[in-house]
Amino acid sequence: IGDRGVNKNEIEYTSRRTGETENWPLDEVNSRLAEKLQLA
Protein backbone atom coordinates (compact mmCIF):
# COMPACT_ATOMS: atom_id res chain seq x y z
CA ILE A 1 0.00 0.00 0.00
CA GLY A 2 2.83 2.37 0.86
CA ASP A 3 4.59 1.86 -2.48
CA ARG A 4 1.33 2.28 -4.36
CA GLY A 5 0.69 5.59 -2.60
CA VAL A 6 4.15 6.86 -3.53
CA ASN A 7 3.64 5.88 -7.16
CA LYS A 8 0.28 7.65 -7.20
CA ASN A 9 1.90 10.83 -5.88
CA GLU A 10 4.63 10.68 -8.52
CA ILE A 11 2.05 10.24 -11.28
CA GLU A 12 -0.02 13.17 -10.01
CA TYR A 13 3.11 15.35 -9.81
CA THR A 14 4.12 14.48 -13.38
CA SER A 15 0.58 15.09 -14.63
CA ARG A 16 0.52 18.53 -13.04
CA ARG A 17 3.89 19.46 -14.57
CA THR A 18 2.90 18.38 -18.07
CA GLY A 19 -0.69 19.56 -17.72
CA GLU A 20 -1.87 16.30 -19.31
CA THR A 21 -3.70 14.81 -16.35
CA GLU A 22 -6.56 13.62 -18.56
CA ASN A 23 -4.10 11.52 -20.57
CA TRP A 24 -3.38 9.37 -17.51
CA PRO A 25 -6.48 7.24 -16.77
CA LEU A 26 -6.17 5.92 -13.23
CA ASP A 27 -7.21 2.41 -14.30
CA GLU A 28 -4.52 2.31 -16.99
CA VAL A 29 -1.88 3.61 -14.60
CA ASN A 30 -2.78 1.00 -11.99
CA SER A 31 -2.62 -1.73 -14.63
CA ARG A 32 0.86 -0.65 -15.74
CA LEU A 33 2.07 -0.44 -12.15
CA ALA A 34 0.69 -3.92 -11.46
CA GLU A 35 2.56 -5.28 -14.48
CA LYS A 36 5.80 -3.65 -13.35
CA LEU A 37 5.40 -5.10 -9.85
CA GLN A 38 4.83 -8.57 -11.28
CA LEU A 39 7.88 -8.33 -13.55
CA ALA A 40 10.09 -6.98 -10.76
From TrEMBL:
Compositionally biased spans, kind Basic and acidic residues: 1-20
Question: Where does the signal peptide begin and end?
Answer: none
- Region: Disordered, residue numbers: 1-22
Q: Which InterPro entries match?
A: Anticodon-bd_dom_sf
Protein name from the UniProt record:
Anticodon-binding domain-containing protein
Give the taxonomic lineage as stored in the record: unclassified sequences, metagenomes, ecological metagenomes
